[in-house]
Write a structure and sequence with these properties.
This protein is of the alpha+beta class and about 130 residues long. It is built from three helices and seven strands. Strands 3, 4, 5, 6 and 7 form a five-stranded mixed β-sheet that branches. The chain is globular.
Length: about 130
Amino acid sequence: MTTTNVSQPNFLGISPAVRRAQTAMQRPEVQAMLRRLSEFDLGIFMPHQHDEQTGDFQPLPYDVLQVESGCQVSFRNRDEIADQTDRFLPVAWRWLDGALATAATCEMVTQEGTDGSGMLTKHKRPNAH
């Protein structure tokens, strides 16, 4: 899969920040970073959300985290999640104020392994009906 050409007419409404991120993927230095990241099973993530009324792409504010819980994505204030490291596993990061910061998390559940050898961490799933 390749990235979309954001100069196409149907992408005129994309914000400058989202357009910049999309365009950056064509730059050799960004692709070199991606090759290096792939050695650690990491990739590149464009932190974003969508306007609730229009569905338009918007940059993800720095005080908001993308949260996956029960296979549903929501957006929550960073302060609500920050101290719950036993419950939310960071899965995407960004650079913020000169330091590593979480951009997205997955809610997890921990349960004892069936053989008693330790704790298993699993993705939190919705309740089955």
